[in-house]
UniProtKB/TrEMBL annotation:
GO terms for cellular component: membrane. Pfam families: DUF1295. Coiled coil: none annotated. It comes from the Eukaryota. PROSITE patterns: S5A_REDUCTASE. The lineage of its organism: Eukaryota, Fungi, Dikarya, Ascomycota, Pezizomycotina. This is Steroid 5-alpha reductase C-terminal domain-containing protein. Transmembrane segments: none annotated.
Amino acid sequence: MTAAASATADIPTAEKALNGHDSIFSNGKVTSTVGLLQNAVLPSFGLHGGLSVIAYGIARSTNRVEIKDYLWPSGMVINAWWTAVGRHSLAGPRAPALEILKSLSYSQKLLLGAVTAWGARLFYRIVKRSVSRGKDDVRYENVKQQSGFWNKASLLFALEAAFQTAISLPFTLPFRADSVTGFTGAPADWAQTIRLTAAGIFTAGLALETLADWQLDSHKNKEEGKQQSDLLRSGVWSIVRHPNYFGDSLVHLAFPLWNYGSQLFTWSQLLGPAANYFFLRWIGGDRENEASQAERYAKESKSKHAQFELYQLQKHSFWPSLFEVANPWTWVVSGMGAAGAAAAYFYESRIAAAATAVNPASLTLGETVAGLQ
C-alpha cells in the first residue's frame, strides 16, 4: 500500500452515493454519544475554541468586536477542510493534500465545495462591509461603552465557538468515518431525488443571500446623501424582512439533506441547521438587528421608523407567508434553486454514463471516477 493510500484509507468512499441503498438502517454499528463527543465534537470544539481565542485577542487589541464575525464563516470552512483533508495530510504516513482531496467521494467533494462556496461568499461580504465602514458595526459600538465589556465579551466568543461546533456537524461528520460509525441514508429509489432536492435548496438559499446583500448595497448607494432615506422593502426584501438570514438557513438545511441522499447521514447532523436557526433568530441575527434598527431609526428618522413599524406588520422577519407565492421574487429564487437541482441532475447523469461505459454491470462510484478520468 502506498503512503497516499494508507493515509486516506480511513476516508469513507461512499461507493453507493449514486445508486443509494435499500434501507435507511444500512449500518448496524452506531457510535455512542460518548464516542461521538470524543471523536467528533470535542476535536471540532477544540479547533473552534482555539480560533476564537485568537480572534478574541485580535478583537480586544484592535477594539473591533466584529473580528468575531470574520471567524463565523471562515472558522467553519477551516474546520471542514481540516477534517476532510488537513488532519490526514499530517498523519503518518503523510500524503499530499491533493491526493487526499482526490480520494474523497463524489458526494463528499460536492459537500466540501458547497461549504466553501457558502463560507467564501459570506466572509467576503463581512470583510467588504467592515472595510467600507472603517469602524465597528453600530451594534457593537454601543455595547462597547458598557463597563467591563471586553471581559464579558470573552463569553460571547466562547458561545459562538460552541454554536459553530454544532452548526458544522453536517459538514465534518461525513469526513470522520475513521472514528464515527452509524452512517445511513435514503432508500435507493429516493436517494437521487433527495440529493437533487438538497442541491436545489442550497442553490436557492445561496442565491437569496447573494441577492439580498446586492440589493441592500444598491439601495444604500442610491439613498446615500438623501436627507430622508427610505427603508428597503422591494426585491427579495419584499419576501421577508431578513432574506439573507432565511437564505442562510436554507443553505444549512441542505447539508444534512444532501448527506441523507448520499449514505453519509447521522441523526446528530440535524443539530447543525437547528443550532444555526436558533442563533439567527434569537442570539446574533434578526432579533439583535431589529432591536438596533428600531433604536437607531427612532433617533435618526421618524419617517424611516414609521416605515419599519409598518414593515414589521406586513412581513414576517424570517419565514415567508403563503401570500408570497404571488410574489415574483419568490419565483426568481425558486427558479435559481431549480437550476441548481437541474445542474446536479445533469452532472450525475454524466457520471453515471461514464461509469456505465467502464463497467455496465456495476455502477459504483469507484468506477465512476475511473470513467471520468
